[in-house]
Write a structure and sequence with these properties.
Elements: E1 3-7, H1 10-13, H2 16-26, E2 35-36, H3 40-47, H4 51-63, E3 67-74, E4 77-84, E5 89-93, H5 103-114, E6 122-123, H6 128-133, H7 138-150, E7 154-157, E8 162-165, H8 178-185, E9 195-196, E10 202-203
Antiparallel strand pairs: 1-5, 2-4, 3-4, 6-8, 7-8, 9-10
């Protein structure tokens, strides 16, 4: 599989390194059942991280309910099994790992993408609003944006207060459903339990 899916919830929960590790875990997860049996050593080797760094990230994922960890017994041995929660997701191509940016810059790009509007590569979270959404200090956010802007991954529009991801080839393109298109034209057709989330995504209940 040349792509995987990541939960959009990572934008408000993870730091860039954790987002990078989460990408690696998703790339080792079965699409059919959202189960990963990857060994922590294997994941650390794949991402070129310390095992302890991967272990700490996995605990954060569990605390933020991005996954559930199960312990399976094989005789005297035990092995972790991870079940990911990716109901509200965006797609990422595996080739992003080949990009000439640091793993933290890559993780920040993933966080930024998770905050983009559905079916789009831009977000109107900007300045203090973006800082309040993320778990990062404003100075760190500015440093990441500056680095990615220099390398033509993102563009900041200070007038519109908008950030656009320029590399469309790194993310899976998704189309609006027919129902979403209808709702935008006739919002009164939404059901009592249907709603639009803070990222502009239509959610239909029932």
């Amino acid at each position: 599989m040349d792509y995987t899916t990541l939960s959009k919830e990572i934008g408000t929960y993870l730091n860039p390194l954790q987002a990078y590790i989460y990408l690696g875990l998703c790339l080792h997860t079965d699409f059919k059942n959202d189960i990963s049996n990857v060994n922590q050593d294997t994941l650390a080797d794949f991402l070129k991280c310390d095992v302890s760094t991967v272990q700490r990230a996995l605990q954060v994922f569990r605390e933020k309910q991005l996954l559930a960890i199960h312990r399976d017994k094989y005789g005297w041995r035990e092995k972790n099994r991870y079940r990911l929660s990716r109901s509200n997701w965006f797609g990422v191509y595996r080739k992003i790992l080949e990009e000439d940016i640091t793993r933290e810059q890559m993780g920040f790009l993933l966080l930024l993408k998770s905050l983009c509007y559905s079916h789009c590569n831009y977000t109107d979270y900007y300045g203090r609003d973006l800082q309040r959404k993320m778990v990062l200090k404003q100075s760190m956010i500015d440093n990441y944006l500056r680095a990615l802007e220099t390398k033509h991954y993102v563009k900041r529009d200070r007038k519109k207060k908008r950030i656009t991801i320029l590399r469309n080839d790194l993310f899976l393109k998704t189309e609006e459903s027919d129902k979403e298109k209808i709702m935008k034209i006739c919002p009164e057709a939404m059901g009592d339990d249907d709603y639009i989330d803070e990222n502009g995504r239509y959610n239909f209940v029932g």
